[in-house]
């Protein structure tokens, strides 16, 4: 295996050069983004399986368990409340971090969301990472009677209000969308001054720059664009953090990515291609009625989502925008993503579409046993 070892050594060297330190641990987590309908898998079965996989993640040494907030559709709709699921995970696990990936301030009153997250932070004894997102599905905005063109302002105001509720007492808020106070949030957050905050960003440069300028951590997905474009956006984010006075390498960046590992590489590609195609079709279907609307704040989203249909799994694999194949092949793909993006935390979708539980479990076991050991181990949290 001299070739693989050379790639791994090069990876560690690159990370050291980028961050100016001796070694940056490579962390990996699992990411539940339900893309399944009741006809394909009942909700009770989906959540039973996800809870079992979360316990397995804790035992196998994964760094995090993440779940999204979406509504109504087979694309994400099984998860309208990440806090409920993660509270269940908290009672079954001991060390794995719990990530809301991500809550949507535009759809939640800041007092309600700040209180829910503070409760979860205490229940899990400070293992919570909080992700916030603008949301992007037009049907969700319609149902909540919120204009998509107000999403950025609602997003930023909601986060600012939540941070004040966590850090201050007798908070008075006089914003554009919410007014309240004076109020003091109880319980106080376990992690002081706040839990780690992540911002989900996809393709808009303004989102990456804003997240960096505020000193927030970042969530991104690589498969909606080219690696070169994504690398440019990450450079904007890191540059904005540096310009705002934050130390180089102090950020945490989570990368959402599909993962299917099997001892039989051909089977892994065949099965992953079927489930990934179903995932994409469900995403596109949620936008089909809105392809001509093109909201101002989401310029290019309709074209981006429609364009995903044109990307084959083989193309994604070639660019290391999915982790698919044998453990050896996936090791190479992991190394390749770090070469392009620097130090990021893969947050892996291992049960996308109506994938059988056994395949998701096998992916996790093989990745933990034969991929993780090839990279620097995480330091104790």
From TrEMBL:
Name recorded for this polypeptide: Luciferase-like domain-containing protein
Originating organism: Frankia alni (strain DSM 45986 / CECT 9034 / ACN14a)
GO molecular function: monooxygenase activity; oxidoreductase activity, acting on paired donors, with incorporation or reduction of molecular oxygen
InterPro entries: Bact_Lucif_Oxidored, Luciferase-like_dom, Luciferase-like_sf
Family matches, as SUPFAM superfamilies: Bacterial luciferase-like (SSF51679)
PANTHER family linked to this entry: BLR5498 PROTEIN, LUCIFERASE-LIKE MONOOXYGENASE
Gene3D superfamilies cross-referenced by the UniProt entry: Luciferase-like domain
Pfam families assigned: Bac_luciferase (PF00296)
Domain Luciferase-like: 36-339
Keywords for the protein's UniProt record, in alphabetical order: Monooxygenase, Oxidoreductase
Record's GO cellular component terms: cytosol
